[in-house]
Amino acid sequence: MMRDCQMLLNQMKEITEIQDSALLLAALKAANGDLMEAVTFLTEEHAQEPAQDVAAAEPSAWEGSAVGKQLPQDGSAAPAPLNQDNLHTANTIRPLESPKAPTAERDAAERPQDTHSAENKNRSKRKRCEVWGENSKQNDWRRAGDWPVGMKNIGNTCWFSAVIQSLFQLPEFRRLVLGYSLSQKVLESCRSHTGKRNIAFMQELQSLFALMLGTRRKFVDPSAALELLRDVFRSAEEPQQDVSEFTHKLLDWLEDAFQLTVNVTSPGDKSKNPMVQLFYGTFLTEGVHEGNTFSKIETFGQYPLQVNGYRNLSECLEGAMVEGEMDEATASQSVKYGQERWFTKLPPVLTFELSRFEFNQSLGQPEKIHTKLEFPQTIYMDRYLYCNKELIQMKREEMKRLKEKMVILQQKLERYMEYGSGPARFPLPDMLQYMLEFITTKPAVAVPSAQGSQTTLLHSQAEPRVLDVLSQPNGILERTDTSTEDGAFFLANSSPQQNSNMELQPSVPPAELSEHPAPHVVSEEELNLVRTCLQRWRNEIKQDVQDLKESIARTNLSIEQMYLDPLLRQVPYRLHAVLVHEGQANAGHYWAFIYNQPRKKWLKYNDISVTESSWEELERESFGGLRNTSAYCLMYISDQVSCVGADEDEGPEAVQIQKEVEALTPELRQYIQKDNWRLEQEAEEWEEEQSCKIPQMEPSPASESQDLSSESRPDQLSVCEQSVHSLSSEHARIAQEQTAKAIANTADAYEKNGVEAALCEAFHEEYSRLYLLSKETPTPQNDARLQHVLIYFLQNNAPQQVVERTLLEQFADKNLSYDERSISIMKVARAKLREIGPDDVDMEEYKRWHEDYSLFRKVSIYLLTGLELYQNRKYQESLTYLVHAYQSNEKLLLKGTNRGVNESLIALYRRKCLLKLNEVAASLFVSSEEARVSEGVSILNEQIIPCMHLMNNFDISREDLDAIEVMRNHWCSYLGREDMDAKLQLKLGELLPRLLDGSTEVIVLKEPPKIWPNSPYDLCSRFAAVMESIHGASTVRVK
């Protein structure tokens, strides 16, 4: 019973992406064990949070407004005004809206909204229709141009999607699969069950690849190929298939299937097998066992690597290649270690399997290893090749010697820095300093008048004694924040009673009044002798410590640069794909990051979703150490494979895809055409089904048909109306999740008073919530304007008609068609929008406000992206975003200080980034290497000079002017340098006029890469993280 329950919970985690087991269990209980009802409960209206308890004061003139006159005003339909009594009543009713909701879920729903904002995002990320691949909008079914397609998850099959997508994006592998064919003679001769199964799977994989290449769908269905795997890979006890196990089996099947295409005399000869040539390599194992040497050659496909105990991929490989250490007397001269492995042949596609699971003997179950493991985008395999054996063995011996030396140096330093024989140890230089202070301190004979100066000495130089006093039970801990005099006064005494009576008892003996220890009697001769010795010893010790630290730094640098020899950087492998696992050993979710060669970008493949990503996101989700998400498998490709892909991908990607489709067999092309035709049929059937679902109660059939006809002919709308509709629809889509929550809270009004009352209640509550948010005091880590377009409007005093129409449009958004209530509210809102005439709302003004908010979001996204890139030292990319953010922000600030973002923040980081990039360009220029010089000149011409000229206008700040002078002086300092080549001096002469005076030039700025828009939750969390990072690091001082 418990196992079945765990299986259901794992499936719900996979479908809903909610990791809170208590919440999932509560939903499962509420649904009486029905999985689909529980999923529906979590992903639709029951998953929505109730509105917060506090409502804003409503505007005073609702009845007279353009929107207010369209909403019901009679008491029977409209909700009562939002006073405190009604709020209390509403809060007592809301928990009863969902009779199935258990107590645990009601408690969770009553928490503040921001506590679960991240989880709310996860709940609504995958709605019911997406679980089975039936999207709520038919446009979301369709592929966007040549964008890669996703893969449908048909129940715990994300592992299949991650592996297949990684293989499909290998051009060589894709060509092999799509070109697979067997003669009739071979087909007839294959009679074994395994052989027939492999051929059938190969044919299904071929069809799947053809669809992934030429389909018009946003994602494909792998059910046919998975059906063949079901008996082998799926069982009731293993709901989630292990990626490495599946990949091993997949390669075995493919190897056997392709072996049928190879005409060899010996069936066991697989040297001509294309799968073996692409994915398999060999390594030699040499070692000494009980005095006997041995060696053997083995074949590998996925090379396993242990993660535990290692910090990065190089350490993992070193640990895998060298095992144990034999005694020097028994080891041979050629083999210094117990066992060594050397790669004798590397495959074009090199796959590392990271062992992130281990069996816990005490618990009797597997556990996932969450430790951090870094890996590079390019790894050089020279140090693991047999051909470099002698050089590497020498370097390993040198590395061993350096590490032993490092241990000795660290131990020596530790003896200095943790001196003493008891449990409490201190740095020896400090102890000598304390003794010097002690010997020079004069004993107190009366209440000292200069108490403040002694207190300073106590706090600054006698810190260990202060800590000792504070650690005592009667220490006055609460007074540590008071003034220094009070602090010294309390620390000098043992109890509060003594402190309170001190001023009344001037006759206390001098010993009790002494603020800190001092010698009772010391002669001048003794003092001079001890002081001289202590000072000399302290200087000697400080010099010893400094020498040790420098030796450690030099040794560490030698270790880091040990394998940076140019001779060991001849065999590069580029990272192609990273397979990621989120969860624990017994359950979780898989996705893949794959480098797209034509786009030169990382893409994230997560079931049906394929989105643009970045190396920074890949690091966060793949290295591990922070959350239960980490890389599980790394796929590297040689230069040979990546160069083939680059040659193939010259020109637009769509052209290359079309060429590959045209190269398919007629049967596969026909298969693609039939599937695309079925897509059109499904779209038509869906439209008919949706039209039947929309209630015909309101508005009237005549007005409905008129509205549908107008929507079907957008060319009849004016350009202004089309533009306004596009922007306002975009902002409605951004706020879709928040609007859906407002609708979800109107269940009671909808049941009792009808759809118009529900709309009115949702409208008023959402307006009140946003009005409150707009009045909150902003903080450096929080900008409420990013949460909703109306907060931006309210903070900038937008006309009431613009605010009201914007909110009404959000309830009229077609994307809210979740259920009958949402559809009904959407229809009524659309009808009311049609009743608002041009006299009620100035559409030109309405358009301008939405254009401003769209530009504000763009500026914010550019700023955040620029700051993130700057923190990751990607100054070229960062500067492009920051410059465009500043230029666009200027337009907004002309209309009001609250229309844009903080100008000084953008200016500060634009300046810092420009200075950093100038240093990079200058170092490239003076390197004298032709390629690096060209790169430096390119950076100067395309980014630095245009940015400098944009900054150098009539209202330039003093800081920007100083920065420009620093950069110009840097380049001018190269003039006449004797160590600079004559050609470089000539190039410098060509650059300086543009650098010093570009007033006659046309400034052309490179447009930054497009960024997919973030949801409000994502954007706000990014904003908070970036701002907290830059302020926390004390690198920003914004006036």
UniProtKB/TrEMBL annotation:
Residues 103-122 have a biased composition (Basic and acidic residues). Residues 83-92, 493-504, 702-711 have a biased composition (Polar residues). GO terms for biological process: proteasome-mediated ubiquitin-dependent protein catabolic process; protein deubiquitination; regulation of proteasomal protein catabolic process. Its EC number is 3.4.19.12. It comes from the Eukaryota. Residues 49-135, 493-515, 684-722 are annotated as: Disordered. Keywords: Coiled coil, Hydrolase, Nucleus, Protease, Thiol protease, Ubl conjugation pathway. It is found in: Nucleus. Residues 149-639 form the USP domain. InterPro entries: Papain-like_cys_pep_sf, Peptidase_C19_UCH, UBA-like_sf, UBP14-like, USP, USP25/28_UIM, USP_CS. CDD domains: Peptidase_C19I, USP28_C. GO terms for cellular component: nucleus. GO terms for molecular function: cysteine-type deubiquitinase activity; proteasome binding. Residues 392-419 form a coiled coil. Its main location: nucleus. It catalyses: Thiol-dependent hydrolysis of ester, thioester, amide, peptide and isopeptide bonds formed by the C-terminal Gly of ubiquitin (a 76-residue protein attached to proteins as an intracellular targeting signal). SUPFAM superfamilies: Cysteine proteinases (SSF54001), UBA-like (SSF46934). Pfam families: UCH, USP_UIM_N. This is ubiquitinyl hydrolase 1. The lineage of its organism: Eukaryota, Metazoa, Chordata, Craniata, Vertebrata. The gene is USP28.
